[in-house]
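#help-structures
NK: newbie question, is this the right format to request a structure? protein is Succinate dehydrogenase cytochrome b556 subunit
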Amino acid sequence: MTTRNRPLSPHVQIYKMPFTAILSISHRITGIALALGTVVLGYWLASAAYGPAAYGHAQAILGSLVGKLVLFGWTGALFYHLCNGIRHLFWDVGHGYEKAEADKSGRMVVAAAAALTLLAWIIG
């Protein structure tokens, strides 16, 4: 038996992860981000219930540059997860499984999420 000096799978410098796999991983990550964002939302609502001083403190935190970046990221995660969830509903009824269609719908999800996030922040 001869042993060959070759890897069992492609090296990370060779292997290119498929776009749909990146979107799938992103969907899971945004789900976690939304759960964490719900805790922040709960903190903000609870601070409003505790009175003006607590609410002012929460507003100062969420109104800071870091707070706004977190809220912007949470908004992006929300719209990405929503748009990708709609894409999955189409998959559930059997549409869009072909590689070209899956890539096209994935790009549409990313574009729609970016556009909705910017639109929400412009309006808000």
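mod (FA): yep, format's fine, and the tokens are attached above. The chain has four helices and no strands.
NK: thank you!
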